[in-house]
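S.,

As promised, the fe (ii) ion run. Input:
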Amino acid sequence: MPVELPELPYSRTALQPHISAQTLDLHHGRHHRAYVDRVNAGIAGTELAEASLEDIVLGSQGSLFEAAAQAWNHAFYWQCLHPRAGDEPHGPLAERIARHFGDVQKLREEFNRAALAVFGSGWVWLVQHADGSLAIVSTRNANTPLTGTSTPLLACDVWEHAYYTDHQSDRAAYLRAFWRLVNWDFVASQLR
Ligand SMILES: [Fe+2]
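Predicted complex:
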């Protein structure tokens, strides 16, 4: 059963003007698709041929791991966004954020610092540790919290392909756009 490229959970123009249709065409239609295609080429005829994407991430190394982790990270990232700009966290998620960061603005500031500090390509995550605490972590290149003990709640792709079309190399401008699009209901749904 090959791994499939998930459909975007919104139309290709839905995130404009913050993330353009051109960026989604490139990022989802070319980069994400290429990772999925590489996974399927890598698992064909192996013991992972019928495995879930999560199990492929956990059971592979090298270039297959990189492609599988990128396929998983991107599928998660698309779900972290939605077109209802200006949303704020509420309910139990807002209470957790207040407890661990003070407020959502402080979370954003810490997240942005981590995002701007990633040298080259990588990801920034809001995660829930096994003890229930929330934290900001960054991962290099394809690496993903999926291989650790923390639960990912929110992901930001800081590979340049995520923002070059819209913002050239201005990662800070991309982060401002990202925060306009965060799907806090999805983030809350990932809490354990
Ligand atoms: Fe990406």
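The mean pLDDT is 96. The chain has two domains: 21-79, 91-189.

- D.
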